[in-house]
Write a structure and sequence with these properties.
alpha/beta; Aspartate Aminotransferase, domain 1; Aspartate Aminotransferase, domain 2; five-stranded mixed sheet; three-stranded antiparallel sheet; binds ligand PLI
Length: 464
């Protein structure tokens, strides 16, 4: 429960509910069948079999009445839609970059950026990998190098800025391969794979100085950067009185452009964009987008999608929204901690991550403990979560072996403005019930492995 004391108001949702979607609870037998048919991969389950959906916070937000009203303002023209110009104004106002190229979602923007900026044999440092981001870097001929601080790899460490870049690691890479082989650093706000962990403004300033000296661009993954701004406001000296909007702008002003999956921070069900300040990069992106996405004024989106995105950006870049958003995730995380469940510390912004290694110490990482735990939680409760460990990390292209990352996690991802505090309590109860019989959970073997981003479509069977 949130603390009640005189003179203090806790967070509450800054909205009231106008329309609801009914949930359905299935039986354990039905869920066992559904999980078997899905090859023990929550990505392959059907949402009709799900009770509470914590698979992702991507494209799963509840839109506001104003966003829905915006859909009716869709100017569905092939070229020059009014909604594009509105979105362009809002992106310039909130993010501050000069040029905007819309894309259908984040990975569309990653594709454009990787193809434009990466040459064969280049190295792309980043504050931990993200699955689609790294794949696009590799497909463009680059090699991703992790330069996040060591603290990020330790689930138990409660360092407040686990998303920081380790400047020593970055410099070692630049010294080794030469700055001309490093076109940009990929900097993610609220690092997803580390548990939703922010970088600090002090770290970004240091990075900015270094990159200017070495002529290396800083390309932001802005997907959850408003949430990163909220943590800077809460945790970094000198920011308590600045608004999320001001901090977001300060972050963007220290970077050269971004890729964005608007399906997260920006509260829409589909959409993304690429931005930059450089005129030449923009021209290339504007030209390439017509090959993969659509004309440069819609990039794979309907006019109405761009309108909803413009409105979503305005609503998300507020203290009220972020306090409730992050407050709800924290509420769930603290419940789980009180019940003795091992989770990644500090609690992140978009999800609570269960440490599956600690939860299931008897399962070897190559028997996919996090995958097995996600499947078990679904069978127990109908709650759908996601593996973020050995399956997601994939294989090392050189050795062909599983990467066995230090973090073996199950992500309980909270969609924005969708569930209530009572749902958070039910989720806690389900996890506690699985924890009580954790000794009986067995590992999985992979029986089908697709070539790219295997976690989406791989199939498993229980080890007997
Ligand atoms: O799913 P997309 O293509 O709109 O965006 C790709 C993407 C890029 N960067 C980051 C940090 C992401 O989290 C991301 C997508 N994330 C998903 C789908 C997730 O479930 O976390």
């Amino acid at each position: 429960m949130n603390e009640i004391k005189p003179g203090h108001r806790t967070w509450a949702e800054p909205y009231k509910i106008k329309s609801v979607e009914l949930l359905k609870m299935t039986t354990r037998e039905e869920r066992e069948v559904a999980m078997r048919e899905a090859g023990y991969n929550t990505f392959l389950t059907r949402s009709r079999d799900v009770y509470i959906d914590l698979l992702t916070d991507s494209g799963t937000s509840a839109m506001s009445d104003r966003q829905w009203a915006g859909l009716m303002l869709g100017d569905e023209a092939y070229s020059g839609s009014e909604n594009f110009y509105h979105l362009e104004d809002v992106v310039r106002e909130y993010y501050g970059y000069k040029h905007l190229v819309p894309t259908h979602q984040g990975r569309g923007a990653e594709n454009l950026m990787s193809q434009i900026l990466i040459k064969d044999g280049d190295y792309i440092p980043g504050n931990m990998y993200f699955t689609t981001t790294r794949l696009h870097q590799e497909l463009a001929g680059g090699t991703f190098v992790d330069v996040i601080v060591d603290e990020a790899h330790d689930p138990d460490c409660d360092f407040p800025f686990k998303g920081n870049v380790d400047m020593g690691k970055l410099d070692a890479l630049v010294q080794k391969v030469g700055a001309d082989r490093v076109p940009y650093i990929s900097l993610e706000g609220n690092v997803n794979m580390a548990g939703g962990q922010p970088f600090s403004m002090a770290n970004l300033r240091e990075l900015h100085t270094y990159c200017r000296e070495h002529d290396i661009l800083i390309m932001l993954d802005a997907t959850r950067t408003m949430e990163n701004a909220w943590f800077i406001r809460e945790r970094e000296e000198g920011y308590a009185h600045k608004s999320v909007r001001q901090i977001l702008r300060e972050i963007c002003d220290l970077t050269d452009g971004c890729t964005m999956s608007a399906k997260k921070d920006a509260l829409v069900n589909i959409g993304g964009f690429f931005t930059c300040n450089d005129d030449e990069i923009f021209k290339k992106a504007q030209n390439l987008v017509v090959v993969y996405e659509g004309l440069h004024t819609y990039g794979g989106l309907a006019g109405r999608d761009m309108e909803a995105m413009a409105q979503g950006i305005r609503e998300a870049a507020t203290e009220e929204h972020q306090a409730a958003r992050i407050g709800q995730v924290r509420y769930l995380g603290e419940n789980l901690q009180r019940a003795g469940i091992p989770i990644v510390k500090p609690i992140g912004s978009h999800a609570v991550f269960i440490d599956a290694r600690e939860f299931l110490p008897h399962i070897d990482q190559d028997d996919y403990p996090a995958q097995a735990l996600a499947a078990e939680l679904f069978i127990e409760s109908g709650i759908r979560t996601m593996e973020r460990g050995n399956v997601s990390a994939g294989r090392d292209p050189e050795t062909g072996k599983n990467r066995r990352p230090p973090l073996e996690l199950v992500r309980l991802t909270i969609p924005r403005r969708v569930y209530t505090q009572a749902h958070m309590d039910v989720i806690t109860q389900a996890v506690v019930d699985v924890y009580a019989r954790r000794d009986q959970i067995r590992g999985l073997k992979m029986v089908y492995e697709p070539e790219y981003l295997r976690f989406f479509q791989a199939r498993f069977e229980p080890i007997t």
